[in-house]
């Protein structure tokens, strides 16, 4: 193994997680031989130049959408709405960040190897061996003493196999490639069909209508259904809804296993009166979202009412997002044909649905989400690291152990959180693979030289990514006193059981914490033994916990290891 391909630390992915993981590790170890492997030609992941387009907006707000060591300039007023902004400014921010941050005379950008695809990861002895493919087709083997897999949740597109697609003449494009395609500019593409019902699908629908295309929106008949779409102008005592969500008082309203056990959370979640109050609060929020869309009140002959989501916002059973455009609902109601029916077959330039409906189609856009980005591991390694794997691949005794842990934990969860004991009727999407069984959704129990970063769904991804990066440094530095393996197994079991109760279908993988960013970050910092981010009880409970406070905690850690 040559010196050029042997590293102390390798990070897979130069998105928001990989970037900050590299920065925090190099701050603690500026002389470390570290590299970042990125399959794209640019940084940013979802927010890269390749994947960004003009009507792509963030779902986080200015002041909360930054790393703690580099404030983000506020975008121009015309590119902001309720403190959210066009995603291109996050792209610019990340590009500037990797150029500005330097260690031992080299910037973060200097340490990123672009257009290098990791095809296989193996453990040989004490080192991780990564088989990589370069843009020119040549192969490289890279070794690492420590490995951070920071390729996130949006790396491997989930592209459906449609009946008859081999005879379809038009392109089938996933949202991951939407920005770089010229599909909306094509004069030969007049009829566009969008599949799935989440935020990326909604964005593509909106852009296609704005481009003058005839748009059909298809949602599977049997599934979690249409996504919910939240308004950004909700009135709160705070600057905006995102800042409200960054307070511990709002987080305490969530039936979260991560919240502290005290009289307040007990009264809210373990008593019928408290659970009833929480239920009514979120029911009122849900009704506001439905009223804004006015699913059944808008005049429409195209099936607009079929976009109404099935399960209340509180449960997050399906996908969802924020509404950034004032004309979104009216534009969809007036112009978009909506079907909640499965595709029967594709023709040369047509789609036929299971109900017999046939319509013209020149291109198909898929907002069908992503697969877990774990194809780089072989089945045995997936089992060894307790990453999602086929249930039949693991030994029966392992299955029995985790089934017992989950069953015991589920009983405790339903006793502690009364509202979770009786979920509403809903379609529940079961998985044929196991959940992630990682400590803090990052650390395998069987190997302390690898961490899985940013595979958790958190409300504020950049905030959670920085906290994970801090925890990763302390973990690799052996500065965290870990519970015993048995205790960690119990904690993982409790987390997965809670996740499935709290978030239904989305909780099946055990990595969904969409409304729990603050207690999750608090837990990571508590593991490290940090408290500089905490304030007086009143300020701690009612003021937003943001990047500034996270930076104070990181400074405390660096000071403690001098």
Structure, briefly:
With 562 residues, the protein is an alpha/beta fold. It is built from 16 helices and 25 strands.
Structure write-up:
The strands form 8 sheets. Strands 1, 2, 7, 8, 9, 10 and 23 form a 7-stranded mixed beta sheet that branches. Strands 12-21-13-14-17 form a 5-stranded parallel beta sheet. A 3-stranded antiparallel beta sheet has the order 18-19-20, with no helix packed on it. The longest helix is centred in the middle third of the chain and has 22 residues, at 272-293. The mean pLDDT is 95. The chain is built from 16 helices and 25 strands. By secondary structure, the chain is of the alpha/beta class.
Features:
562 residues; alpha/beta; 7-stranded mixed β-sheet; 5-stranded parallel β-sheet; 25 strands
Strand-helix topology:
Elements: E1 6-12, H1 16-28, E2 34-38, E3 80-81, E4 84-85, H2 88-100, E5 102-103, E6 106-107, E7 112-114, E8 116-124, E9 127-134, E10 139-149, E11 156-157, E12 172-174, E13 191-195, H3 199-210, E14 214-218, E15 228-230, H4 241-245, H5 248-251, H6 263-269, H7 272-293, E16 320-322, H8 328-335, E17 336-339, E18 343-346, E19 350-353, E20 358-360, E21 363-366, E22 370-371, H9 379-384, H10 396-416, H11 418-421, E23 450-452, E24 457-458, H12 461-476, H13 485-503, E25 512-513, H14 517-528, H15 537-542, H16 547-560
Parallel strand pairs: 1-2, 1-10, 2-7, 10-23, 12-21, 13-14, 13-21, 14-17, 15-16, 24-25
Antiparallel strand pairs: 3-4, 5-6, 8-9, 9-10, 11-22, 18-19, 19-20
Helix pairs in contact: 1-12, 6-7, 10-13, 12-14, 12-16
């Amino acid at each position: 193994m040559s010196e050029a391909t042997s590293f102390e630390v390798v990070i897979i992915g130069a998105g928001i997680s990989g970037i900050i993981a590299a920065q925090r590790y190099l701050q603690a170890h500026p002389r470390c031989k570290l590299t970042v492997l990125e399959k794209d030609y640019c940084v940013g992941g979802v927010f890269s130049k390749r994947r960004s387009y003009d009507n792509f907006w963030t779902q986080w707000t200015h002041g909360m959408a930054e790393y703690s060591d580099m404030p983000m300039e506020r975008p121009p007023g015309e590119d902001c709405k309720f403190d959210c902004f066009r995603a291109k400014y996050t792209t610019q921010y990340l590009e500037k960040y990797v150029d500005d941050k330097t260690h031992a005379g080299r910037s973060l950008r200097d340490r990123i190897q672009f257009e290098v695809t990791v095809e296989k990861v193996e453990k040989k002895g004490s080192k991780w061996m990564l088989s990589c493919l370069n843009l020119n087709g040549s192969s490289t083997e890279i070794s690492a003493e420590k490995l951070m897999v920071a390729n996130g949740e949006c790396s491997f597109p989930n592209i459906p196999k449609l009946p008859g697609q081999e005879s379809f003449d038009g392109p089938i494009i996933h949202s991951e490639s939407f920005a770089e395609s010229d599909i909306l500019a094509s004069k030969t593409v007049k009829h566009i069909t969008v599949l799935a019902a989440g935020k990326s699908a909604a964005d593509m629908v909106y852009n296609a209508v704005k481009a003058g295309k005839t748009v059909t929106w298809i949602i599977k008949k049997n599934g979690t259904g249409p996504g919910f779409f939240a308004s950004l102008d909700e009135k709160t005592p705070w600057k905006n809804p995102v800042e409200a969500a960054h307070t511990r008082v709002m987080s305490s309203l969530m039936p979260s296993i991560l919240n502290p056990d005290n009289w307040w959370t007990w009264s809210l979640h373990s008593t019928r009166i408290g659970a009833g109050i929480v239920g009514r609060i979120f029911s009122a929020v849900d009704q506001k979202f439905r009223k804004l869309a006015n699913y059944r009140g808008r005049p429409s002959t195209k099936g607009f009412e079929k976009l109404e989501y099935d399960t209340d916002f509180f449960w997050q059973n399906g996908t969802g997002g924020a509404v950034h455009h004032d004309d979104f609902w009216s534009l969809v109601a007036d112009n978009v044909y909506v079907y909640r029916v499965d595709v029967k077959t594709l023709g040369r330039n047509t789609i036929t649905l299971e109900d017999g409906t046939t319509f013209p189609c020149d291109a198909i856009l898929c907002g069908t989400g992503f697969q877990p980005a774990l194809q780089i591991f072989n089945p045995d390694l997936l089992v060894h690291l307790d990453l999602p794997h086929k249930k039949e691949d693991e030994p029966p005794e392992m299955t029995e152990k985790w089934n017992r842990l989950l069953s015991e934990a589920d009983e405790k969860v339903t006793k502690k959180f009364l509202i979770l004991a009786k979920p509403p009727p809903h379609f529940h999407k079961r998985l044929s693979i196991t959940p992630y069984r990682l400590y803090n959704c990052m650390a395998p129990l069987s190997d302390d030289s690898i961490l899985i970063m940013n595979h958790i769904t958190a409300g504020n991804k950049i905030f959670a990514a920085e906290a994970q990066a801090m925890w990763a440094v302390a973990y690799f530095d052996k500065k965290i006193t870990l519970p015993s393996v048995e205790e960690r197994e119990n904690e993982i079991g409790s987390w997965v059981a809670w996740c499935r109760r709290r978030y239904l279908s989305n909780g099946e993988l055990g990595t969904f914490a969409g409304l729990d960013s603050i207690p999750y970050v608090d837990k990571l910092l508590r593991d490290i033994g940090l408290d500089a981010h905490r304030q007086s009880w009143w300020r701690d409970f009612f003021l937003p916990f943001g990047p500034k406070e996270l930076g104070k905690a990181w400074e405390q850690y660096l000071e403690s290891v001098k």
